[in-house]
Specification:
Low-confidence stretches: none
CATH superfamily of the largest domain: Probable tRNA modification gtpase trme, domain 1
CATH topology of the largest domain: Gyrase A, domain 2
Shape: globular
Number of domains: 2
Largest sheet: 6 strands, antiparallel, barrel
């Protein structure tokens, strides 16, 4: 998937974003900040990386979501001294030693680094890494019906519960303080042919949906109360170990 880097400039840029996104903008002093913008009802609109730039904050986002994200942020601008614009920065990724000017991916150490300074990327199979650690991808596991806690954002350093208010914060906080989540993403074992998007069932009842697959492992969205024993996804057998 291609990425776009938006820029937010102006003296109010940090405070402006702090009141909107799920994570603490103060973390930019240490590198990238993974975060999301939600609807007031707590549903996912976009996930992205905030990037510390000279006299600006970058937003590294999937290119398909960039126009809508820029428009949504502009709606919230009101009288704040901020300007939202595109840029010609390119995103490259790799594993191994972090090149000069690059930043470690804050979601998981195995995801390596992200660069905005022209470092050469490599041929790492990032889908295999995502499946191994149940890390969702924009437009695949993450879509308009997603809730970030069901998608693992707390585990992936994408939400801060101490930062104060942001759009969708109330719903997210309520989900956090439930005894347990009833639905969410999990890594499952798959034996047999099954394509991403295939419905997962057990005894004829819907259990969830299969998403990214790497070998005999895959990310799935599950109803945890039904995800027991052997399940089916097309011709494949699916199992999950909590």
């Amino acid at each position: 998937m291609t990425r776009t880097v938006l820029t937010v400039t102006g003296r109010d840029r940090a405070d402006f974003l702090q009141g909107l996104v799920t994570n603490d903008v103060a973390g930019l002093k240490d590198g990238l900040v993974y975060a999301a913008l939600l609807t007031p009802q707590g549903k996912y609109l976009a996930d992205f990386f905030l990037v510390p730039l000279e006299d600006a904050i970058g937003i590294d986002v999937d290119s398909a979501l960039a126009p809508g994200l820029a428009q949504r942020l502009s709606m919230y601008k009101l009288r704040a001294d901020v300007k939202i614009a595109g840029s010609d920065l390119e995103v490259t990724r790799g594993t191994g030693p972090v090149p000069e000017g690059a930043y470690p991916d804050p979601r998981h150490a195995d995801l390596g680094w992200r660069s905005y300074a022209g470092a050469a990327g490599d041929g790492t199979d990032f889908d295999a890494i995502r499946v191994a650690h149940c890390i969702p991808e924009t437009g695949v596991e993450l879509g308009p019906d997603s809730y970030i806690l069901e998608s693992g954002f707390e585990r992936l350093n994408g939400v801060d519960f101490r930062k104060g208010c942001y759009v969708g914060q109330e719903v997210t906080a309520r989900m956090k303080h439930k005894t347990e989540l009833r639905k969410g993403l999990a890594t499952v074992t798959v034996e047999g042919p099954a394509e991403p998007g295939t419905e997962i069932t057990r005894d004829g009842k819907p259990v969830g949906t299969l998403h990214t697959r790497a070998g005999d492992r895959a990310i799935a969205y599950l109803r945890f109360d039904r995800a027991e024993g052997e399940m089916q996804a097309g011709e494949a057998t699916v199992t999950w170990t909590p």
